[in-house]
Write a structure and sequence with these properties.
Layout (H helix, E strand, L loop, with lengths): L4 H36 L1 H9 L4 H19 L4 H6 L1 H24 L2 H8 L2 H11 L6 H19 L12 H22 L5 H19 L15 H26 L3 H8 L1 H14 L5 H22 L1
Length: 309
């Protein structure tokens, strides 16, 4: 009797394999797109700052554009935000501060130092997950914390500056952004009932709200719409569209990619930031910063195995 197993695999299993492969490739593309976007987005924000539009104002306008676009495209998902106010408010505020403080940090600070301080977030994620979600990280979590702190110590250490702490507002912003990102990750786990679109919209609205809260504490006032040129509006519209696409694609990528693989792909953001900051801003890291940064990256990779287990 003829064996028809191979026929079944070709005609019945092939379509499923094709769909799975397509999802895998799209998920990888989404994560890479997000990494590249966040590795380069500091530059247009700096250009807007140099043109007289402060980081808080440009963040407010770009995320307003993202909110408006999402309101037109994902109207039915707004109901999810209204019916779950507590989860949405906490997620929106945490993610809002994460994104706003990140933008302010990369505008005023050295891009790679900001990025590496932000990538201390696995340390904060382990701590928050331990006390809030009661997830015991075990010895891998302890190793993550130790390596992260050693890397930060080496990178921030200055012989004449006392304790190795951030030395500027931009570095403190970067550190707080990493903490906010860790808090966002924990809150996202708790809000698993929200759709990807609803979570993304909560992020965009959160940045707008946090920018409004932050404006009174700035030395410069919010740039009025009529003082912004057409070219600047087009640039901010492009940033808003990029942020919207990156957020949605990253959400899709995270959903269809194992945690370990996704986290490693995200580290490509550091490569993009290193290249762009060198070529566009003439910034270069010294040997101590490379050593400390390498330890922080190693801790981030170890943390992915902690989450997986």
């Amino acid at each position: 009797m003829c064996d028809t197993t191979w026929i079944q695999s070709v005609f019945l299993d092939a379509p499923n394999l094709t769909v799975k492969t397509t999802k895998k490739h799209l998920a990888t593309f989404g994560l890479l797109f997000g990494a590249i976007s966040w590795g380069i987005i500091w530059y247009p924000y700096r250009l807007l700052e140099q043109a007289g539009i402060p980081g808080v104002a440009s963040s407010f306008y770009t995320y307003c554009i993202a909110v408006i676009l999402s309101a037109l495209l994902f109207a039915r998902h707004w109901r999810g935000l209204v019916t779950l106010p507590k989860a949405v408010i906490l997620l929106g505020l945490a993610a809002g501060w994460t994104n706003l403080s990140y933008v302010l940090a990369v505008i005023d600070g050295e891009v790679m130092r900001v990025m590496l301080l932000f990538y201390l977030s696995p340390l904060w994620t382990v701590v928050l997950a331990h006390f809030w979600l009661h997830e015991r990280a075990g010895w891998l979590g302890a190793i993550t914390i130790a390596i992260s702190l050693i890397g930060a110590f080496i990178m921030l250490w200055q012989p004449d500056a006392g304790l190795p702490l951030p030395q500027s507002n931009a570095e403190w912003m970067a550190l707080s952004s990493g903490i906010g990102f860790a808090l966002t990750n924990v809150l996202t786990r708790r809000a698993s009932h929200l759709s990807l679109q609803a979570k993304s919209m909560a992020v965009w609205v959160g940045v707008v709200v946090m920018a409004l809260v932050f404006i009174p504490f700035q030395s410069v006032s919010l740039s009025m719409p009529d003082s912004i040129t057409t070219a600047q509006w087009l640039m901010m519209a492009g940033i808003g569209l990029l942020l919207m696409c990156a957020t949605l694609l990253v959400q899709y990528g995270i959903t269809h990619t194992p945690v370990t693989r996704a986290s490693v792909i995200f580290l490509f953001e550091l490569v993009v930031a290193a290249v762009t900051s060198y070529w566009l801003a003439g910034e270069a890291m010294n040997a101590r910063e490379w050593i400390g940064g390498s330890l922080i990256i190693a801790a981030a990779i170890i943390a992915t195995h902690t989450e997986k287990t």
